[in-house]
């Protein structure tokens, strides 16, 4: 279990740099797809991030949990909104999703606390 999502997301960002260098077209395409998928439309950005968090939990992706909880804090998501999205993830993913939902709560709390004070 990852206990520091701020460190995890920072480490992943560094680990992605070689992929961007070695696979520039692929990574640009992935980035463009992400921008298109997360752009406001019938659903706003916060709703899309809640969906992304639920999918990340169901897929058991700690990096996804880190990046999407960080984005949700920046978008002003409430604990209740995050919890409801996690409820859907648990419903769709069963017991393993419940374990990752607990991690997502920890990540959301970590980024919420960090938003109140500067990063080290």
Any overview of this molecule?
The protein has helices spanning about 5-20, 25-40, 45-60, 60-75, 80-115. It is mainly alpha-helical. It has a single domain (about 5-115), classed as AhpD-like, CATH 1.20.1290. It starts with a helix and ends with a helix.
The count of domains is: 1
CATH architectural group: Up-down Bundle
Most strands sheet: none
What is the CATH C-level name? Mainly Alpha
**Uncertain stretches of 5 or more adjacent residues:** none
Based on Cα principal axes, name the global outline.
globular
Distance between the termini: 22 Å
Give me the secondary-structure category: mainly alpha
SSE order: HHHHH
Helix content: over 70%
Number of helices: 5
Instruction: Round the Cα radius of gyration to an integer and report it.
Output: 14 Å
Based on DSSP secondary structure assignment, what is the total number of beta strands?
Answer: 0
């Amino acid at each position: 279990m990852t206990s520091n999502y701020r460190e995890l997301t920072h480490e992943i960002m560094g680990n992605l740099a070689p992929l961007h260098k070695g696979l520039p077209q692929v990574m640009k395409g992935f980035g463009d797809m992400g921008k298109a998928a997360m752009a406001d439309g019938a659903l706003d950005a916060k709703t899309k991030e809640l969906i992304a968090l639920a999918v990340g939990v169901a897929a058991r992706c700690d990096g996804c949990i880190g990046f999407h909880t960080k984005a949700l804090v920046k978008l002003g998501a409430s604990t209740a909104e995050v919890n409801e999205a996690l409820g859907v993830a648990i419903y769709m993913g069963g017991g393993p999703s419940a374990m990752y939902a607990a991690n997502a709560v920890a990540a959301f709390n970590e980024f919420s606390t960090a938003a109140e004070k500067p990063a080290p």
